[in-house]
Specification:
By secondary structure, the protein is α/β, with parallel strands linked by helices. Helices cover 30% and strands 23% of the residues. The protein has helices spanning 14-18, 68-79, 87-97, 116-125, 138-147, 149-152, 169-175, 194-205, 224-231, and strands spanning 2-5, 39-45, 50-56, 106-110, 128-133, 158-163, 181-185, 213-217, 235-242, 254-260. Bound molecules: S-adenosylmethionine. Pfam families: Methyltransf_16 (PF10294).
Length: 266
């Protein structure tokens, strides 16, 4: 996959990303209160020879921007091939093989932000992807899903947009558990979100079947180890991919696979 920014666009900046305010309260974001800055990022997906265009609204808050973990996730999906033996590809292949006689792979994305990962997954895997986030984020995701419908459609995929505020039982019930694969990028960054995210993962992964959650992550705060300590009480967590350090940072994006504690992987 290659990523090309329009001339008017800022590149994703790993340093800026490190300036994320720990005290941002996303539920307090009021998008209509600030002037809107619009940027577009294009992702050329080599595997399907198509280009996805993503609208960012950086002045509206962190939910409306692209984050490096998302770029890594898209890159890995774009390199996916069922004959690949790496752990990321194996997790995708496992999900693909559970589809059996059903027509399409069903994927749920948590904290989709701009929707880029879910949209790319749908285009590349021909999957039915439900992209979710907090309610105020959904109009921009819907915009991006609509703009890219002509890329996703010919591959047999479909993108559905739904509210899923982590830990909100009625929204979790409405979205349901009927998915083959759960995905997310850059969703661990604020300690008051750890418990609601873990509750959501318990709802999604600890029912029937052997589903996994693939999560791309760029470590920002030392306190994130608290999330991994808590989550390991409930899940087996394996590292399935590691990028080298990004510019201006000592760390790079990693991808973890979360599964039930008794899951066995070859
Ligand atoms: C750092 S952004 C990452 C966005 C996108 N996944 C990416 O990598 O570009 C974190 C995302 O988690 C979402 N989020 C934060 N709190 C949430 C909650 N309680 N329930 C659902 N989504 C939440 C935000 O709205 C935002 O889109």
């Amino acid at each position: 996959m290659t990523t090309v920014a329009d001339s008017s666009d800022d590149e994703i900046n790993p340093v800026t990303m490190l300036l994320l305010n720990q005290n941002d309260d996303l539920s307090e974001q009021k998008p209509e209160a600030v002037p809107t800055l619009v940027q577009h990022q294009t992702y050329h997906l080599n595997s399907v020879n198509s280009t996805v265009v993503i609208r960012q609204l950086p002045s509206q808050g962190l939910s409306f921007q692209l984050w490096p973990a998302a770029t890594t996730f898209v890159k890995l999906l774009d390199s996916y091939n069922p004959s690949n033996t790496d752990s990321f590809s194996a997790a995708v292949t496992n999900a693909v093989t559970t589809v059996n006689c059903r027509k399409r792979l069903r994927i749920l994305e948590l904290g989709s932000g701009t929707g880029v990962v879910g949209i790319a997954a749908s285009a590349i895997l021909g999957a039915d992807v439900t992209v979710t986030d907090l309610p105020h984020v959904l109009p921009n995701i819907k915009f991006n899903a609509d703009v890219n419908a002509s890329v996703v459609g010919p591959r047999g995929g479909g993108v559905h947009v739904a509210a899923l505020s982590w830990g909100k039982v009625e929204e979790m019930e409405a979205v349901g558990r009927e998915y083959d694969l759960i995905i997310g990028s850059d969703v661990v960054y604020h300690d008051n979100l750890y418990e609601p995210l873990i509750e959501t993962l318990k709802f999604l992964l600890l029912g029937d079947g052997e589903k996994v959650f693939l999560m791309a992550h760029l470590r920002r705060w030392k306190k994130e180890s608290g999330f991994f300590k808590k989550v390991k009480k409930w899940f087996r967590v394996d590292l399935v991919h590691e990028d080298g350090p990004s510019d201006g940072s000592r760390t790079g994006v990693v991808v973890y696979r979360f599964a039930r504690k008794d899951a066995v992987f070859r």
